[in-house]
Amino acid sequence: MNAAKSPAGLIAAALAYFALARFGMAIFALKPSNLTLLWLPSGIALAMCLQWGWRAVPFIVVASLAANFDGMAAATSPAHLAHTMLAAMTDGLAGVLAMHMFRRMLPGGLARAADLLPFILYVCLIPTAVSSVLLAANLAAGGYLPWSEAGALARVLVLADSLGLLLVYPAYQGWRQRHTAPPLQAHPLLAAIAAVLALLLASRAGMPGMEYFIVPVLLVLSFHTSLLGITAVTALTIVGVMASAAHPAFAAQTTASDTAFRVAALAFSSALTLLGAALQRGQLEHSERTRQQWQDAAEHDALTGLPNRRLFMPKVQLEHQRSLRSGKPYAIAMLDLDHFKAINDCHGHAVGDRVLDAVATVLRDNCRMIDTPARVGGEEFAILLPECSGTQARPFLERLRGKLEELEIAVADQRVSVTVSIGIASFTGVNDTADAVAARADRALYQAKQAGRNCSIVDAVAA
C-alpha cells in the first residue's frame, strides 16, 4: 500500500494537525486561549482532504477537538463540550470547502503566478470566511466572548486560517513534486536562514526596522531553490517573526530616529523586492518568447512559412477528436507537384524554391480561415479542411488546382509553370482514425498520379 495513502499516514497527519494547533496556541494565543494569529492546522486540513478525501474529515475533527478542548473547557460555559465539538466540526468543514474549491478552481495545482489570485480568493478567503463566521458565532453563543466582538474576531480568524493555508499548501505541493523537482541545494537555504536570523535578532536587539529586509532575502532565495525549500524557509521566518513580536521580552523602545529608519527600511526593501520581481518576470517573459520562437521554427517550414508535418499531424489529431464529439466530418487533401524534380534539374534549386514559395502563397490566399495548409515534404503539401467531406472539398480543390496550373514563374526569358496532383480523403465515423484518413489521402494521391497527374481523386471510402 502507498504509504502516503495508508491509514498510518492519515493518523500521522492528524497528529501533525494536533501538534501544530498546540504549538500555535502556545506561541500566538488570543482570548480564548485556543485562538491564534497563525493557524497552521488549516493548511494541514486542506492537505489531508486532498490526500485522503472525505476519510480525512473525522480525523480532522478529532484532532481539533483534542487540541481545543482544554482552552474551551476552561471557560464558564455550561455547554462547553457541545461548543467545542461545533468548533471542531467547523474546522473539518473548512478543510472540505477548501478541498472542493481547490479541485474546482485549480485542478493543476499552483503551477503559475496567475494561479495565486484564485488560490487566495477561492481556497483561502472564501472557505475561511465561512468557517470563521461560524466559529465566531459559536463562541459568542457559548459565552466565550461578547457578540459585539464576534465580527472583529471573525476577521482575525480569516487571516490566521488563510495564512496557514498559504504556508502549508505550497509545502505539501512541493513534497508531492519532490521526485520531479530539482534537488534541494543546502547552501542557499542555509545562507537564507542565517540572514533571516541575523536580521530578526538585530531588529530585536536595538535595531528596529531590520526585519523589513527579510522579504528581499526570501525573494532572492526563491530564485535559487524549489517550491518546497522557499516554503519551508518562509514558514519558519513567519513563525519566528510573529513569535518574537508576541513576547514582551523582545520589545524595544523606539525613538524618532528608529521610526525614520523603519520607514526608510520599509521603502528600500519594498523597492528592492518589486525590482527583483520585475526583473525575474522580464527574464521569464524573455525565456518564454525564445521558447516560442524555437517552437515556431520547429513547427513551420523555413522556406514557405507554412506549418510542417510536426505541426500538421497534431492538428489533424485535434480535428479528429472534435469530429468524434460533434459528428461533423473533416477532409485531408494531399498535394504533390508534378515533375518537380525536372524543374530543379533544368532551372536549379533556387527556381524550385521560388515555385514552392509561390505554391504556398496560392494555398494561403485561397484556403478558409479554419483550414490548415502545410508543407509536409519536399514537393508535397497537405490541407486540413474541417467541417466538410471529401466530396464537398473536391470542388474547392479543383479550383485550387486550376489556380496552380495558371501559376507562372518568370525565369530569365522563360516562364516556369507547375501542375499538381491531389488525393482527398475524409473522416468516416467513430471507427475511423486520423492516421487512417491521412493514409487514404496518400492512397488517393497515388491514384491521381497513376491517372495521368494534374487531377484530383477522392478516396472511395470517403466518396
TrEMBL record:
Molecular function, one GO term: diguanylate cyclase activity
GO-annotated cellular components: plasma membrane
Keywords: Cell membrane, Membrane, Transmembrane, Transmembrane helix
Catalytic activity: 2 GTP = 3',3'-c-di-GMP + 2 diphosphate
Enzyme Commission identifier(s): 2.7.7.65
Chief localization: membrane
Subcellular location: Cell membrane
Topological relation to the membrane, as annotated: Multi-pass membrane protein
Membrane-crossing residue ranges in chain numbering: 45-69, 81-99, 119-140, 152-172, 184-202, 214-239, 259-279
InterPro entries: Diguanylate_Cyclase (IPR050469), GGDEF_dom (IPR000160), MASE1 (IPR007895), Nucleotide_cyclase (IPR029787), Rev_trsase/Diguanyl_cyclase (IPR043128)
SUPFAM superfamilies on file: Nucleotide cyclase
Domain GGDEF intervals: 328-461
Protein origin, superkingdom: Bacteria
Protein's name according to its UniProt entry: diguanylate cyclase
UniProt source species: Pseudoduganella ginsengisoli
Phylogenetic placement of the source organism: Bacteria, Pseudomonadati, Pseudomonadota, Betaproteobacteria, Burkholderiales
